[in-house]
Protein 1
Amino acid sequence: MLGQTPSQTIGPFFSHALTAPSRDYRPPLGWVLAEDPVPGALIRVRGKLLDGTGKPVSDGMVELWQAGSEGEFRCDGKFRGYGRCGTDGSGLFRFQTVKPGSTGPGLAPHLHLAVFARGMLNHAFTRAYFSDEPAANAGDPVLSSVAADRRPTLIARRRGGEATYDFDIVLQGDGETVFFDA
Amino acid sequence: MTRKSALNPRDWDSHPRQLHAAYGSTLHRAQALPPLPLPADGGEIAGPSFRAPDVREADADLTRNGASAGAAIGERIVVSGRVLDERGRALRGALVEIWQANAAGRYAHERDQHDAPLDPNFLGAGHALTDASGRYRFTTIRPGAYPWRNHPNAWRPAHIHFSVIADAFAQRLVTQMYFPGDPLLPLDPIFNATENRAARKRLVARFSQSLTEPEWALGYSFDIVLRGPLSTPWES
C-alpha cells in the first residue's frame, strides 16, 4: 500500500485560481450547477461560513456534490452535479442547482459539502438536508445517528415561498456544524 | 460517476490534525468536535467526471496562459506526476488544479500585499486532467518564498498548491508541493503540521532528470496518492 498524500491548507490566496475568473482564466467549476430548463426543481442554497468567534470567514470555499432530481449521480451539459463557491467579505456562499432526489430507500434527499479555508489543514465534510422534507428526514439513518441537539446544523431551511434554502456553516464552538469523516 | 466502492478511511497518521497551535489561523477554525462516521456506501463515494469542454489544454502551461505581452519571468520548470490510489492504481480523468506565487513570491491575488513585483505575464493558476496512466504535466515558473505574519520573521517555503478531484468526493484532496532541499522546510508550521516524517516527505517533489527538458526547463516529479478501495484482511 502507498501512503496517502497529506492534506494541506488551501491558504488565503486561491480565489483567482479556483473560484473567480481572473484575466482570461476560467476556473473549471463554479456555483451554478444547473440552469433552466433542467429536469427537477431549480433551487438556490446560500449560507454563511463562520469561525469559532462568530466572525465570517471571508477567505473560504465550499464545494457541493449531489445527485440529480431523480437521485442519480451524473455530470453532463445540463446538470453538473459538482460545483464550488468562494465566500465573500460577509462569509456568504451560494449555489444554484436542482433539488436532489433520494439516492436510495429510506434516504432523505441531501447535498454533500466540503469546506476549505485558510487555517483548515484538512477540508471538512458535511451534509445539508432540506427543511421541507420532514418525513424523509425523520427516517434517514444518517440524520438519526446524530444527537438530536446537533441535528439542526444539518438542515437547510427553506425561506417562505421561495425555492431558496439557508445553510450556515459554523466551523467551531457554539452551534458547531456536524462534520463527517466521510 | 465512474466508481462506487467503499474507501479506506482518511489516514489520520498522514494528514495533519486540524488544531496546530504553531499555525495561528487554526485556533478559531479547527473543529472542536470529532467528525462523525458515515455509512460506507453514501454518495461521498461517488464523484463527478470532467470532460473536454471544462478543461483547456492551454491551462497546463502557466508560463503562457496568463501572459498578456511576453513571457513570464523566472525559472521555468516542468512539474509532472501521477495521481494514484493507495494500491498504486492510476486515477484517470482526475482534475488537477494548481496555483502559486510568482518568481518574486507574490500571488496575483488582490489581498496579497507583499512588497514584491507582480508579473503581468504570470497569473499562477492552471489545471489539467490526468491521462490513462494517471499522469498530469504542468509547465510553470518556480515560485519564490514569501513572508507571512504567523510569527516573527516567518517565511513560507516555495510551494505550489494542488487541488485534486478524482473518482469519489471522499477522495478530495487539497495539498501543497514543496521543493527538495529548501532550508525553510524545517521552520514552516504548515509543512510540519503533518507530524509523521515519512508522510511529510510525500509533500516534497523530487528533481527528475527525465522530466527535465534540454535547453528549456528543469523537471520535478510529484505523485499524489489518494484513498483507495477498502482493503480487506484477506487481500494482500
Protein 2
Amino acid sequence: MEAIIILFSTGIVSLFIAMTRKPILVLLTALIGVTVTAIVMSINWYTPMQWVKYDGIETDYFTIIYGATATLFSFLFILIGYSKFSKEVYHTGDYIAILIFSLCGALCLFSFTDLFMFFIGLEILSIPMYVMAGSNKKNLLSSEAAMKYFFTGSFATGVLLFGIACVYGALGTFQLKEMSEAIAAMKNSSALLQVGMILILAGFLFKVGAVPFHFWGPDVYSGSPNVVTGFMATVVKLAAFCGFLRLFQLGFNGLDGFFVEILIAVSVLTMFVGNLSALRQTKLKRLIAYSSITHVGYALICLLVKNEHTPAYLWTYFFAYGFSIVALITVSMIVNDENDDIDRYKAFARTNPFAGFVMILALLSLAGVPPLVGFFGKYLVFSSAIEQYPVLIIIALINSGIAIYYYLKVILTAISKDDNAEKSTVSPLHAIVLSISMFGLILGGFVTFWVN
Amino acid sequence: MILSTVFEAGISIQYYVILSAILFSIGVIGVLIRKNAIVLLMCIELMLNAANLLLVAFSSYFEQSDGQVFVFFIMVVAAAEATVGLSILIMAYRNIRTVDVSLFNQLKD
Amino acid sequence: MSIDLIIYLLGGLTIGSALMVIISKHPVRSVLYLILTFFLISANYIMLNAQFVAIVNIIVYAGAIMVLFLFVLMLLNLSKENEPKTSLLVKVSALISGSLLLLVLLAVFKDASFLSIENEVSNPNHGLVQNLGKLLFTKYVLPFEVSSILFIAAMVGAVLLAKRDKNIIE
C-alpha cells in the first residue's frame, strides 16, 4: 500500500518537474522515487507496516519479492529509455510518469484480495501500455502497434469482465477468500462458474499472449519503441501472470479437471508455435516476441502445478527472463537501427566487446545454459512439474532444444567477422544497465536460491 | 420507496442472463464484422455493457449492492479506455489518414 | 402479466437496437443507436431496482462517452462513402463464430441452476444511493482511490497522443 502511494506521488511529481524542461531532473526524481519504493517494500519484509489497513489489498512475502523485481526492472527500463525520452523535452515527464503509473498497476496485481483491486490493477497496468506502444507518434508502425494492442487488450477486458460477472452470479461475492469458501462448499459444479472461469482464462491468455490468442504479440512488440517492448515483455507479463496465479490459486482453489487439460494443450501449442515461428525471424524484436511467446508456454506450466512453491518458481522464471530482455533491449538501443535486422548485429561482439559479451550471456541465459540464471528458472519450473506431467516436460525440453538453434544463430551473427562493421557508441547509462544485467545474469542464480 | 423486484413478479434471473449473453455476442460479432475502428470501439463498449447488465441483474437477485459498485468501476475503466482508444485513433488517423483497421497491415512477418 | 410484457418488450428493444449498432452502415447512426441501447439498458436497470446505476449509466455512457465518440467522428469527418467495406466471407465467418459463442452460452445457461437468495444482509433498498455510497466509501474505498491512478494515466496518455506537437504546427 505504502509502495503504491509513493510510486503514485513519484509519477505526479515527475509530471510537475517536467515543466522545468530539464529531463535529467525528471530522471533523478523518478529513479529516487522508484528506489524509495523498493526500500519501503523491503522494510515490509522484516517489519510489516500497518499504518493503514484497507480491504482489498494484502502484503505477503510474494508481494514483496514480485514487487521488488518489477520495481527493479522498471528502474532499469527508465534508465535505458532515458536517451530516447530526453530527445523530446516536452514529453520526457509524460513517458516516465506513464511507465511509473503502469508499475502502480503491477503492484496492485501483486497484492489484491478481491476482484475489484484485481480488475482495476489489471487496467492500470494495461491502459498506460496502450499509450506507450504508440509513443513514437510520427511513426506509422508505432501507431499501428498501439492500435492493435489497444483493440486486442480491450477486447480481452470485455471477455474477462463477462467472466467476472458470471463468477459473481455463481458465487455471490467478489472476495477471493469467500469465493474459495463458496466453491469448497458447493456440492455439484455450477455451469455459470465454469463459463465464468473459462472466460476469465481466455482473457488471461489474451493478455499474456498465449496461443491461440498470440497473434497480436509479435506485431505489437516489433512496432512499439524498444523500451516499451522490454517493459511489456518483463513487467507487464510478470504482473499479469502473478495476478492470475493469485486469482486462480486463492480464488478458485487452483485449476483442476477440465481446465488442466485446456492449459496443457495451450502450453504445448504455445511452445511449438512460438518456437517454430521464431526460427524464421530476421528481426531481433520479432525474435524476442516469438521467444517470449515460447516462454509464456513454459511459464504456463507453473499454473498447472498446485503447491505452495509455485509463486516462487514463477518468480524465478520471470526474474531470469527479465535480465535477458533488459540486456537485449539495451543492445538494440545501442545499435539503434530502424529495421532492427539481425544482420545489423554482425560483428557486434567484436566491435563492442563488453556489450557483445552481455548480449551473448543474455541469449545463452534465454536458452537455459547452466551457470546462468535462465537455467535455474527453467530447472525449477520443469522439476516441479515432472512428476505430475512427465510428457509435458519432455515436450518442453524438446522445445528448449529447438530454441537453442535460433539463439545460437544470433550469437554466431554477433561474433562473426565483418571488416566494415562500425563501433557503436555505448552511452554511460547503457553501460551501467549492461553491467547490472550482467551481474544479474551471472549471479542471479544465487539470489533465486536465497529466495527459494 | 420500496419497489417489489421483478423477480417477485415472476421473471426468472435466467431471462437476464440470456439477455446479457445475447448482447455480449452481438458485441463480439460487431468486433469481428466491422472494420471502422470507432465502431469497433463501440462494440467493445457494448460488450462491457452486457457484463454490466449481468452484474446488476445478479446484484438485484442477491439483493446486495456489491455488484452495482462493481458496475461503477467498469464505467470508470470504460471511460478511461474510450479516452485512450480515441486518442490512439486520432494519432493513427494523422499518420495513415484512415480508420479502416484492415489497412493497418504494415507489421508482419 | 403487464410487468412481464414490459420487461420482455424492453429486452427485445435492447437487442434490436444493439443489432442496429452493428448493422448500420453510417458510423453516426451506429453511435445514435448505441445511445438508444444505453437508454434501454438503463430502463432495464430501473426494472431491476438499481435506480442510481441507471442514472449514472445515462450520465456517464450516453452523456460523456458517447459525446466523445460523436465528437471524434465529426473531427475525423467520416461519412458513409469512406466507410470501409467488409467482405462477405469475413461477414459470414464472423456471424458463424459469434452465433456459435451465443449458442454455447445459451446452452449452458438454459439448464443452469442459480444460487438462491440466502444472504442475511439482504436489503430491498440495495440500489439506492445511500447503500451504494456507504459500500463504496467503506468496503471498496481502496479501489475507488486507486482508480484515480487510472484516470490520471489515461488523461496524461490521451493528451500525449492526441496533442499536435509544436514543430508540426510550425
Protein 3
Amino acid sequence: MSKTINVALIGNPNTGKTSVFNALTGLNQKVGNYPGITVEKKQGSCRLNHTTKAHIIDLPGTYSLNASSMDESVVIELLLNKNDKDYPDVAVVISDIENLKRNLLLFTQIKDLEIPTLLVINMSDRMVGKGISLDIAQLEQKLKTKIALISTRENKGIEFLKTCLLDYRSLSKEGCLDITKIDEAYFGNLQKVFPDQSLYKLWLVITQDVNFAKIQRKKVQDATEYKTQPIAHLKRLQQKETIKRYQFINQSLKETYTVDQSKATDYRSKLDRILIHRFWGYIIFFLILLTIFQVIFDWSSIPMDFIDESFSVLSEYTKTNLPPGLFTNLLAEGIISGLGGIVIFIPQIAFLFLFISVLEETGYMSRVVFLMDRGLRKYGLSGKSVIPLISGTACAIPAVMATRNIENWKERLITILVTPFTTCSARLPVYLILISLVIPEGKFLGMGYQGLTLMGLYLLGFVMALLSAGILNKMLKIQSKTYFVIEMPNYKLPLLKNVLITVFEKTKSFVVEAGRIILAISILLWLMASFGPGKEFNQAEEIIMSKAKVESFSAEELENKIASYKLEHSFIGILGKSIEPTIAPLGFDWKIGIALISSFAAREVFVGTLATIYSVGSDREETIKNRMKAERKPDGSLLFDLPTGISLMLFYAFALQCMSTLAIVKKETNGWKWPLIQLFSMTLIAYLSALIVYQILT
Amino acid sequence: MTTLDLIEKNQLGKIVAIETNLLPLKLIEMGCLPGNEVYLEQHAPLKDPMYLVIDGCHLAIRTETAKNIKIELI
C-alpha cells in the first residue's frame, strides 16, 4: 500500500529553500495560486521509498511567523489550520549555515506549534571557506530535533533528508519557549479563558490582527476578540518574545557553532565595494541593463523570424492540403495565425526571465535596491520598486505582485500604479514589427537606428513611470510609516537548475495564460471578419462586378477587391469603421482600429489581429510583416509611414491595454478604484501623446 | 551615547535601546535588539540608506529608521 505524507518547506528568503524544493521534486511540480489571493502556490511530489510518497509544498519565504505581508500570512494560515488538506505531517525548516542564528528564530516559532519539525542546514559547501564548524549531535539535542546538513549546490545530503522525512514520526513535538515566561499575568489570564488551547497559537492569532489591522482577511479563529491589551503593550510583548527566543538560540549555538575568523575568506566586502560604489555601482548597473536589452533584441530575432516563417508556411500548408471550406479557413486564418502571435513571444520572454532570475539568484538585485532607494524616494517610490520596474519589462503581472515586499503602503501603491508604463514583453512584438516597417536600417555611431529606437522606447517607459510617480507622490495624501528593511544576502553563483526551472515555469504560465485569451480573440475576430450583415457583405461579388471598368482588372485583382469589400462590410469592419473618426487624427485607419479594440484584452493581440485581418481573403503565403508593408491608404501612399508608426508606438507605450493587469491591480489594491483610475489616465495620456506627435509629424 | 544613523565606517557600536513602537518587528527579529553589536558596512550615496551588520546579519535600513536606535560606541 502506497501512502503520502504532507511536507511543508518553510524558511527565510535567501536560504536556498527553492533549491531544496527543486532538488526534491525536479520537474514534478506545479505552480498555481492560493484560492482568492494571488500568492504563488508551489507544490510537487517526491518518492521517498517504494511505499511512501511525499507531497511537498513550498511555502513563501518568511523571516518569522509574525506576518507582515500577504505572502507571509499564507504560511501561518496553513500552519494554524489543522483541517487544511495541505496541513503538514512534518514541517521542514530550511536554514543556511552562514545565517543560522537568524534562521533559527523561525525554527523555534514553528517548533512551538507542536508540529514535528525537521531542521535542514543548507550550503554546507561554504563551511570550509567561512571557517565554520558545527557539532550536529549536540545541536540536535539542544534544539530537540533532527538535523540534515545538506548542500544543494553540490547535491549532497538530499538522500539523507529523504530518510529523515520517512522517519518523521520519531521527531519530537516539544516546543522551544515557554511562552508564559514573557508575561505571566497576561498569559496566565489568557489560559484561564481558553483552557484547552495552545497558548502560542492563541498569541499568534491575537497578534496577527495587530500586524494586519489594515488588510482584510478571514479570521483564523474566534479568539480574535480577545484583545484586552493596547497595541503598544502587545508590541512590547512581541519584542520580549523575540529576545527570549534569541536567548534560547544563543544558548543552543554557544558550544555547537563556532567560526574561526582566521580561516574565513571574504569576497563579499570586496564585491560590495565595487558593485555598490557611489559611481561605479551605477555605471555597472546601467551597463547590465544595456546588455540585457541588446541581447533580447539580437538573440531572439533569429528564433522569432523562424517562428514567423514557420507559421505562415503552416497556415499555407493547411489551406492547400485540407478540403476547402469554413473549417479549413478557421483553422488556417483564425487559429494558426492567432497561435503564431503567442508562440513568437517565447524567445524574448524566456530571455527576460532568464536575466531577471539570474540577477535575483546572485543577490545582485538587493544591491540595486540599496543603490536606487534614495533617488527613487524623491518620486515617492522605494528602492524596492526597482524589482517591479525591472520585472515589468517581462510582464506587469508578476511585477505588480513583486511590490508586496514594499512595507510602505503609499510607496507600494505608487509602484503598482506606474509599473504598467514599463515596456512589457507584450509590447515588444508591436514595437519590433512597427520599427522594422517605419525606421530605416542605417547606423549611427555604430548602433543601428532600429536598435536605438527600441532602447529609446524602453527608456521612455521608465521615464514616464518616474514622472507619473512624481506627480502621484504630490497628489496622494496617504500617511503611512516608512519602513524599509532589506536583507543584503551573500553573493552566490546562480544554480543552473533553479534558473532553468524558473524560466520554464514562468514562460509556460505566460504562454498558457496569454495563449487562452489570444486564441479566443483570434477565433472571435475571424468569425466577425468572415460574416457580415445585409446584402453589402453577402452580395459583395455582384456589387463589385456591376461596377464600371471591371473588365480592366485581372482575375487576381478582382478577387482582392471583392475580399477587401467583404471585410469592410463584415461585422468587424463595421465596428472598426465606427471608431475610425475618433482615431483618424492619430493616423490610424479602421483596420488598426480593430487591432486597438482587440488589444484592450491584451496588447500582444495586436500583431495576431492584424495577421488575422490581413490574411482573411489573401491566398498567398506571406509573413505578417510583408502583408502590413503592402497596406495602402485610400490615396495610395503607405499606411504604415513614419508618423503613423511613431504615433502607434506611443499609443502602445502609454495605454493600459491588458485585462490581466487590471485584474491583478484590483486584487492587490482591494477594489476597482485604482485600476479604473489607472485605465482612464493611461488611455488619456496615450491618446493625447499619439495625437500630438502625429499632428506635428504630418 | 549616540544614535545609529551617526555611526561611521570602522566604528563598532553596541545597541543600548530601541524605540519599539517606531521600528518594524521585522527589524527586531533580524537581530536589532539591545546588547547586540553593530557596524557600518557601507553608506549609499548621500549617506542613505545604510548597509549595516547587526549581530552578524547583513541588512540595509534608512537613516530615519536608524535614528530610533540608540547605540554606544565601543
Protein 4
Amino acid sequence: MSPRALYDDFIRTFGNVLFAVALFAVWGVLTLVGVVVEQGKDAAFYAATYPAPIARALLRLDFDNVYHSPWYVGIIGLILTSLAVCTFKRVIPARLPPLRPVRVEAIPLHATLHLRGTASEVRARIEAFFTRRGWQIRKRSFGGVEWTFADRHNWARRGVLVAHMGFVIIAAGTTLYWWKGFSGETVVLTGDAVRIPQTGAVLSLRSFRYVIQPTMTKSGLVYQPIDYVSSLVVTGKDGIPQPMTLRVNHPINIDGTYYYQSSYGFGVRFLVTHDGRPVPALSDQTLLEGQMLAIPGVQRSVEFAQFVPTIDRTTGRPSPDPRVNDPGVILEVFEGNQPLGAALVPMKTWIDLGDGWRIIPQAYRLFSGIQYRYDPGVPLVGIGAFVLLAGLVISFYFLPARLYVRVDDKADGTCTVGMAATTVKGYDIFDGAFRELVERLRAELDAQPPAPVLVPAEVTPT
Amino acid sequence: MTHALGLPALAMPPDEWLLIAALVAYAVAAIWLLLYFFSQDERHRRIGAPAAIVGCAAQFLQLGARYAETHIWPLLNLYGSLSLFSAMAVAIFIVFAYRYRVWFAGGFVVAIAAIFLAYGVTWNEGVMPPVPSLQSYWAKIHVPLVVSSYAAFLLSFVLSLLYLLKHYAEQRYRARSLQMAAAAPGAGGVALDLEETAASGASMQASAVLGEIRHDTPAIDAAAEAGDPIAGWLASLPSLATLDVLTYRAVAVGLPLLTLGIITGAMWAREAWGAYWQWDPKETAALFSWIIYASYMHLHTRNAWRGYRTAWVSVVGFVSIIFCYLGVNIWISGLHSYKV
C-alpha cells in the first residue's frame, strides 16, 4: 500500500464520527471498570474478592489500576488523534461550506413564492428583509444566475472547533503536569518537622487540632468531624520561618507548591522491656499505624495495627467515639509471617510477648497528613475547560443556518422566489423557524407595493 | 382531641410543612398531567400545570426554609440533593412546557420527580453539621450545577421514552398494514406507499415542505384515519421529529451544566484534596455519563443515527446518571460517599 493510500485510510478512519463514538464507548467501558473494580489494591485483595480466574484477568489486564494502564492511556491517545483529524478534516470543511448554487426543491426545507415586481426589485426587498433581521447577506452569480445567500450565526459554525480546541488545551495542561509537576504526601508528628524532597521546604507541626461534634440523628448518635487544623511553621526558599495554618479546603502556597490538609492520626511511643529492663533501642521511636517492631533474637514481631481513641470499658472493645477519652492500641503479634493474635492494650499497660519481652504503649502524639502538589498545567487546564464550555455553549445554543435564495423573472411581470434552508444540525430543528420566516417574508413582500416606475409627468393644459 | 391531633402537626418545622405540600402538589400534578397525556383534554392540563408549579415553588421554599432554620447549606446530603433534583426537574420541565409546549410529558416528569423526592425523604437523618471537606463555597456552586444537569437529563429521558414509544408503535402499525395489504387482494398500492416511506428513512422524517403537515408516522396516521383509537391517540402526540428535537434541546441544557459541574467539582477537589482529578468513583461515573451524552451529541449530527438510535443513547445516558447519582453514593465507597 502506498504511503498516500495509507494516509487516506488513516484520515478516513480517524475522521469517521462512528469510529470516534466507538472509541468513546471503549473509553466509557474502561472508565466504568475503574468505578466497579476497586483500584490500587494489592493482588491479595483481588484474590480474596473475586473468583480466581476473574482476579487473574483483572491483574493481567491492569484493571487494578485501569486509569494508568496502557489501555486507558492508549484509548485517550486515540480519541485525541480522532479529535484532531475530525477537527481539521471534517469539522472545519463541513462547518464552513462554500457559497454555491443548490437545487432548491431537493433540500427538505424549501419554499417557493410568487411575487410581483422584477427580479432585481424583489431580490433587493428580500435582502433588506433579512438584513433587518440580522442575517448576513452575500451575493454570487453562477452561470449568469444571481444567487443570494443569507447566513445567521455564521460565526457559531466554529463552536465545535472551539470545543475540540478546549480538549486539546486540557490535554496539554495535563501533559505539562506529567512532564514538569510532582505530588506527594507526608506525615508530620506534633513537634516534629519534615523536609519536602522536591522543594526543600521544611514544615514543622506545632500542633494539630480536630473538632468532633456528637450529633443525634434519626438513626442514632453520629460523631461528625467538623474541623481539622494544622498549626505549622513553614520555611520556604527564602529561609524565613513563617507560621501558617492549614485547613481542609484552605491549602497553603509555598513557592508555587500547594499543601493540603489530608488526614490525621496518632503515633504511639512504646516502651519495650526484656526481663524487666527497658530496651532503649526499641523504645525511643514513635510508631505509626501499620509499622512493626521486630523483637531481637527471636522470630517474633509486633505490629501497631490501630490506635483506639476510646475504649468502651463495658465491652472491652473500641468505642465509636473518635475523641481521645480512654485510649489504647490494637497490637498484632507475628511469629515469622504467621499472625499469632491481636490484643487491645490500654495505654500504660502491657502485654507479654514471651521469652521475657513486654511491650507497653507509653504515650501518643497526633500527626497531620499533608498532601503537596506542584502542577504547572493548572492554568492551561483551566483555560481549556473554559474554552470547552464556551464551545459547547456556542454549539448548542446558536444555530448557524444558511438560506439559499434564487429569484427568477417571469414573463407576466412577476417573479418566482425559490428559497431553501440548511443548518449544521439537520432540518427538523429549523423547521418551525423556517416556516415562520417564509410566512413573514411572504406577508411583508405581498403587502409592499412594487417599486413605482418613474414616467415623465404628462402636463395637461387647463 | 384537638391537643392530640393538632399540636404535633403544628410543632413540625416549616420546611417539613412545605415538603408535604410539595409532595401533595406533585401527586395532584402527576395524576392530572397523566390524564392530560392520555386524554389530550385541556381541562386536565389546566389543573395539572398549576399544581406542578405550586409543588416546585413549595420545594424551593422548603430548601430555603431549611437553610434559614439550620444555617447549613441544605444540599450536602442525599436528602437535600434529591430535593433539589426533583425541584429542578419540575422547574426545567415547566420552562420547557411554556417554551416548547411539552405539557404532554409532564405527568411522567412530575411523577418521577415525586418518587425521587419521596425516596430522598427516607435519607433525612435530621440536621448534621457538614464534614470539613464540604465546608466550602464550592458546595453552593458545584452541587446545584450537577443536580440541575441530572434534572435536565430526566426530561430528555422522558422525551426519549415517548419517542421510542411512538417509533415502535409506528413499526407495529406498519407491519400490521403490510400484513393486511399482503392478505387483501388489490391493496398493494397502500403497501407500496408504506414501503417507499420506510425506505426513505431519516430523510423522510426531515422532509417538511412548507405548507404541508409533517407525517413521519404514516402508518399511525393511516390507522388513526381508519378509526383506530390507540393510533388516534398516538397521532395526537408530537411528531417523531419534534420529540427528537425536544430531546436534543433537553440534552443541550444538561450537557453544558454537567460539564460545568465537573469543572467546578474539579476546582473544588483541587482545593479540598489537592488534585483536580483523582479517579474517585463519583468523578469517574460522572465522566462516564458525560461520555455517553457527548456521544449522543456527536451521533445526533448524523442523519442515519438521529432518531430512535439517539433516543436509546439518551435512555442509556440517564441510566448512567442514576448510577452515578445514587449507585455511587450509596453502594460504592469513595470521596463522594455523602449519604447523610
